[in-house]
Amino acid sequence: AIEGVLRVYDAAGDDAFAALEALESGKARTLLDWMGDPPQRVDAAAARALTAAVHALALDSSRENQRDVQRRLLETRTVSRQATPLDAVRLREHVDRWPGVAFLSYWLGRDECWVVWARDGRAGVVELGERSVVEPLLRAAHDDVADPRSDPDEALAAAARCFLGPDEVRACLVGAERVVFCPDEELGALPFEAIPFDGIPIGIGFPIERTPSLSIRDVLASRTSHGHDVAIVHSVVGTRALETRYALDPLEESGAEAALVVRAHDRIDELRGDAATVDGFSGLLARGPFDLVHVSAHVVAAAVPTESLLVLADAPASVATLVGLPLRGALVVLSACGSATGEARSGEGEVGLLGWPFAAGARGAVASMWSVNQQATKDLMGQFHAILAEGRDAVEAMQVARATLAAASNYEHPYYWAGFGVFAAPPLPSRPVGAWLAWSGAGIALSAALAYWLRRRSG
Questions:
Q1: Contact predicate 107/184, CB 8 Å
Q2: Among 161, 112, 158, residue whose Cα is nearest residue 132
Q3: Distances from the Cα of 18 to the Cαs of 14, 124, 321, 322, in angstroms?
Q4: Are 171 and 199 in contact (CB under 8 A)?
Q5: Residues of the chain whose pLDDT is less than 50?
Q6: Which SS3 state, helix, strand or coil, does residue 345 take?
Q7: Are 256 and 378 a contacting pair, CB within 8 Å?
Q8: Deepest of 5, 83, 101, 192, by most Cβ within 10 A of its Cβ?
Q9: Residue 156: which residues within 8 A CB-CB, separation 6 or more?
Q10: How confident is the model at residue 344, as a pLDDT?
Q11: Would you say 313 and 275 are in contact if contact means Cβ atoms under 8 Å apart?
């Protein structure tokens, strides 16, 4: 149905915000529901049936199995009322609230791939190609960027031609102050941050924001920070049974990473090691509200979104357990949280990872999109928090952190610097940035991007 709407508006050149409304109807609906009505533990039998359906889909991605997974997802929805996505009028209003920001909403349909772009009150629909052509580009780009032994240049260049290359998309991007990527559940695996635009990875050349849907971003934009302190959870040592069950590697750089976070911020409340239990974590957050919550621990993404796990010292805590913890207005950083189960996806994109902070009232989240290198994560987070503490918003701070790492020869491969995305953390109007600070942050990013480009060219 969504694909049919896109074809109509692409052919007629009609109001593309209506096409954007159609996309919103199919994106991250469970997560949007959770944000108004936090989930409870799902029925065990329904959860087992969904897990079996997901396993079958992994072996055979036929349309029959895809429909079965979607049916099981509906059966395991855990809210009593459903939220309403933004309609065309409210989507236009949302875009108009951020002048100079480029919005790119992608949809990989049954037969074709599409993008709806919007900026400064204008929008358009662009067909990107047949699914049979686009899907291999997605897989190649993801696999090459997530593997530090690969040479990702060819795959990323092909992805750039497909996803950023059409004339209307380029026109939307040129001169933009920042870019908001809104991919569907499948295209969420695309490493947008590493895809080149005019010779420089777009995640270095622009402040890049991800969002599961613009309706979710609209909710998050209304949330503001209610605290000033920073909470840090790190050096979590799980039980041997937990480490064996989920094949978890020790977080050897977690303590050093936490030291960099502490160095960047003034007011810190810290939870570490054996004290980082479920009760300890609950007690820490109860001492808030916090402006920032940094968690250096493993996250295991489950097929059932409510059963994704944050692995703490004494037990794994599910999303359904965590949503009751107070995170009102906080930015939540999930560091070193690559899924120990590989690329498990729920059918709702990143909902398994983001469901907890968003349902618990956070204003945004930083999360990894593949298993990340611990040393690189430590250095990336050190840069990120240093810039964040200067007053930059999370999207700009991550841009500078990526650029700084990419300019180092030992971190040149995008595996090291493109793995973390900032999910729907709009800048807060109550925290203006002085002109000198804006210039200095942009200057750092520009200098690092130039160093990256020159080294790549000379190589």
A1: yes
A2: 112
A3: 8, 10, 37, 36
A4: no
A5: 42, 79, 339-350, 429-441
A6: coil
A7: yes
A8: 192
A9: 141, 144, 145, 191, 194, 195, 196, 414
A10: 34
A11: yes
What pLDDT does 444 receive?
56
CA 243 remoteness from chain centre: 25
Go through 111-132 and write b for each residue having 16 or more CB atoms within 10 A of its CB, e for each that does not.
ebbbbbbbbeeebbbbebbebe
Q: By three-state DSSP, how is residue 208 classified?
A: strand
What DSSP letter does each residue of 368-432 carry, written as one string? Answer: ESS---HHHHHHHHHHHHHHHHTT--HHHHHHHHHHHHHTSGGG-SHHHHSSEEEES-PPPTTS-
Query: Which contiguous run of DSSP H or E holds residue 145?
Result: helix 131-145
Give pLDDT, residue 430: 45
- Phi, psi for 302 (deg, rounded to 5): -105, 160
pLDDT for the residue 307: 67
Hey, which CATH number is domain 224-432, 3.60.110.10, 2.60.40.10, 2.30.29.30, 3.40.50.1460? 3.40.50.1460
Q: How many Å apart are CA 372 and CA 379, to the nearest integer?
A: 12
**How far apart are the C-alpha atoms of 194 and 141, rounded to whole Å?**
9
Determine the 3-state secondary structure of 194 from DSSP: helix
pLDDT at 436: 36
Q: Residue 212 in contact with residue 373, Cβ under 8 Å?
A: no
Place of tokens 């690329």: 343
Q: Provide CB contacts within 8 A for 362, sequence distance 6+.
A: 223, 293, 327, 328, 329, 330, 331, 332
Distance CA 261, CA 50 (A): 39
The bridge status of strand 331-335 relative to strand 290-296 is parallel
Q: Which residues, including other chains, have CB under 8 Å from residue 211's CB and lie 6 or more apart?
A: 180, 181, 182, 217, 220, 423, 424
Contact in structure between 45 and 152 (CB atoms under 8 Å) = no
Q: How far is CA 389 from its chain centroid?
A: 21
Nearest alpha-carbon partner for 380 in 235, 168, 203? 203
Q: What is the pLDDT of residue 366?
A: 93
Question: Residue 314, SS3?
Answer: coil
E strands along 143-197, which residues? 178-182, 196-197
DSSP 8-state secondary structure symbol assigned to residue 360: T
What tokens does 161 get? 């031609």
| Domain boundaries for CATH 3.40.50.1460 within the chain | 224-432
- Could you give the 3-state DSSP secondary structure of residue 444? helix
pLDDT of residue 338: 53
Distance separating alpha carbons of residues 73 and 69, to the nearest angstrom: 6
Of the candidates 266, 257, 267, 262, the one whose C-alpha atom is nearest the C-alpha of residue 236 is 257
Contact present, 356 and 306 (Cβ < 8 Å): no
